[in-house]
Amino acid sequence: MSQSEKKNEPKPTASSTAPVAPKPAASAARPSPVPKQPLPRVQASGRRSFLKFMGAVGGILGITPFIPFGAFFTASATTGKQEAQKILLPDGSFANVKTFPPDSAVIFPYPRTGDERFDSEPFRRFMLIRLAPQEGGGQNDASAFRAYSMVCVHLWCLWDYKPGRQVQDPKTGRTIVGNMECPCHGSNYRVTDGVAIYGPASLQTPPNNAQPMLDLSIDSEGFVVVNPPTYTVDRNGIIGYGRKVQA
Amino acid sequence: MAEKSKPSSNLIVKLLLWIIDRLERTIFLGIKITLPRKFLSPLGFLGMLTFVVFVILGVTGAVLMLYYEPSTANAFDDVENIQENIPYGFLIRNIHYHGSNAMVFLAVAHLYYQYFSGRYKIRNEIIWVTGLILGVITVLEAFTGYDLLYNDRAELAVSIGVSLTNASPVIGPVLQQFIWGSGFSEFIIRLYALHVFVIPLMMTVLMLFHFPRFLVLDIPISTAVVGAILVVGGLMPAELGVKFDPNFPPGITVPEWYLTGLYAFIRTGYDKFFTGGVLPLLLILMFLVVPFIDRGRKFTWKDRPFFTALGLTSIAQILITTVWGFYIDPDSSKPTVLRLFIEPVSFYTLLILSSAAMFVVTYSYMRAKAALNVGKKRVITRPKPITLSTRWTTISVVLLVIFEIYLNIAAYMSYNAKLWNLTLFEIGAAFMVFAVLFHIVRAYQPPMTPITTAVAAKPPGAPAVRAAEK
Asked: A77 vs B185: CB contact, 8 Å cut-off?
């Protein structure tokens, strides 16, 4: 029903109750801008669908800021202070390049908080290894040391360092001194780069076959310092998952 | 309705009727729950039985939460404390544990019964699909639950889960952190949050889309199932295991029975994502597409040889993988990895050959049988219900009540004697006795008496009073 038809309709209430005068003024104010010819339907529905589209866009824009909230679920083990830290030894001193014997290892938490609840978390436990002299452990710089996550990338047991044990590298055939072995299913890792060489972990597809590793440096007094890590597959690796090793 | 025609003077009954009347204003208006007055095959309402067990798990689980802290330091010790020190903790934990097994079993049985009777037809596709999702997350719920014990079995379950997320292509690292968090203390909290809140909530919502409008709640059979759970709990009390310690290998152990099939696949040494993820998914996918393929008008398994053969083949596959998953080489001189390893060629060959054989044999047998039966009218025979006379009904009811009293006293005494699994057994037995008792009472039919004497026995004033009330 068009506007003009509506105007011609009799209004039964107007005559009986309301005063007649204001009524036409009010109705005249409203329909005057409406053109006689109704808008073509296509155009009208075009505007309607445009508005609907804009409504949908508004809705999506409202939700968009929440997408990065997904990061809430994938926080790294070491959220919190990621700072350069010296490595505390069980005797209360710090690991030093001058005193730490070659072909030996020590477990340490990183980042160290002093709170047993955090420091005992397997995902915060690392093994500092000074390589055997045959592997370059005699050097007096950071290249003599390695720090790997203790969580085996196979099934999350905690591996152990076997000093002096000789294993053959299946690729090069060379004999390596010092070995990382997991007690659960016997995965063996190459101590120089943390890549699995024997056992079930070695059968996993890269990067699911190498231990995450911390970067180390030696400060002016000779202390071994952990550099703040980036837990991505390409950098320090993801604990319990693995690390991409450049061949 | 029956209650309207016969107004009761009993205040409690009046209150109940008042409440039921008002409940019709709520969402329950659409659901009709029938309490059957005679024995019905429980196969038809396995879903309701699953729900009954779900409610029991909710109640016992809520109670267990009071003494359990999801942390690496305390989880195992808390379970041990519940099991050994908290009064009735042993019983509640056992009911929860065996209830979880019963729920998975009932859900699978429900799935197969509905499958073979073709219930996914007649516009039941939504119910079928939501049921399938419910079944999968029921297993997830059970899986997250037994990880919370933080014992060697939990260690194995976690390692199975980890190996699946780690083996996922592309999203592996993100998925690992999404599900397990970053570390042992985090995954135990995540699994706990999933187990006590997220998954039960999802299940409750899905149930709204899964429940048909007509439900059967059979009190005796529900009670008997609960009793059976307790009896099994008494016979095979849940074990504590050894505390989870990532420094030591887990003892040789197998997962819960609903996961050994998956475990067998993973142990074949092939790509874990394919064997442990894709292959089991194929089974679920098969069930998912069946209602959209099987569009015929035939319902019973006898008339659908192809789908019956398919279902039987899937059962055979589940049985083979499940049983094989339990097998571990007993030679302890071998390294663990070799003892766990399943030789893939024989495993997959047997699986494929037996599946093919199962399908061909059942399918051709059913086709042959159908060809023989062409033209024959199918006769449905129903067993005649056993009816007891008034005398024997009374005697058996009295005896059963006495037996229940005995079981109650026995349960109390064995509890005090710290024979807790015996207590569990006796409570379960009492439940089952009650189930029989309830059934006898409901099945009892008073002997037919001539109508004339019945009218004469009534006080003459009674009809007049009732008329005056109206």
From this structure: no
Show residues of chain A in contact with B181, CB under 8 Å.
73, 75
Mean pLDDT to the nearest integer, B391-405:
90
Question: What value, to the nearest 5°, has the Cα angle with vertex B395 and ends B391 and B401?
Answer: 145
Q: How many domains does chain A have?
A: 2
Residue pair A152/A159 in contact by the 8 Å Cβ criterion: yes
Query: Of A43, A73, A103, at which residue does a domain stop?
Result: A73
Q: Do both A67 and A91 map to the same domain? A: no
Cβ distance A74 to B73 less than 8 Å, yes or no, reads no
A10/A93 same-domain check: no
Supply the mean pLDDT for chain B: 85
| One domain, residues A31 and A109 | no
In three state form, how does the secondary structure of chain B look?
CHHHHCCCCCHHHHHHHHHHHHHCCCHHHHCEEECCCCCCCHHHHHHHHHHHHHHHHHHHHHHHHHHCCCCCCCHHHHHHHHHHCCCCHHHHHHHHHHHHHHHHHHHHHHHHHHHHCCCCCCCCHHHHHHHHHHHHHHHHHHHHHHHCCCEHHHHHHHHHHHHHHHHCCCCHHHHHHHHHCCCHHHHHHHHHHHHHHHHHHHHHHHHHCCCCCEEECCHHHHHHHHHHHHHHHHHCCCCCCCECCCCCCCCCCCCCCCCHHHHHHHCCCCCHHHHHHHHHHHHHHHHHHHHHHCCCCCCCHHHCHHHHHHHHHHHHHHHHHHHHHHCCCCCCCCCHHHHHCCCHHHHHHHHHHHHHHHHHHHHHHHHHHHHHCCCCCCCCCCCCCCCCCHHHHHHHHHHHHHHHHHHHHHHHHHHHCCCHHHHHHHHHHHHHHHHHHHHHHHHCCCCCCCHHHHHHHCCCCHHHHHHHHC
Q: What are phi and psi of A175, to 5 degrees?
A: -90, 125
A104 shares its domain with A186: yes
Residue of B nearest to A239 (CA): B182
Cα separation, A30 vs A39, in Å, equals 17
Residues A58 and A98 in one domain: no
Mean pLDDT of B241-248: 82
Give the residue among B104, B79, B281 at the shortest CA–CA distance from B192: B79
Mutation for A interface: B182, B185, B189, B248, most A CBs within 10 A:
B182
Same domain, A23 and A97: no
Which token pair is B386? 């056993």
List pLDDT tens digits, range B337-394.
778 788 888 888 888 898 899 889 988 888 888 888 777 777 777 777 777 788 888 8
Half-sphere exposure of B158 (CA within 13 A, CB side): 29
Give the nearest chain B residue to A205 (CA atoms). B167
**Mutation site, B177, B190, B244, B334, interface A, largest A CB count within 10 A:** B177
In a domain, A137, yes or no: yes
- Average pLDDT in the B91-95 region? 93
pLDDT for the residue A141: 87
Closest CA to A244 of A218, A202, A205, A215: A205
Q: How deeply is B55 buried, as exposed, middle or buried, from its count of CB atoms within 10 A (0-12, 13-18, 19+)?
A: exposed
Smallest CA–CA distance, residue B143 to chain A, in Å, is 17
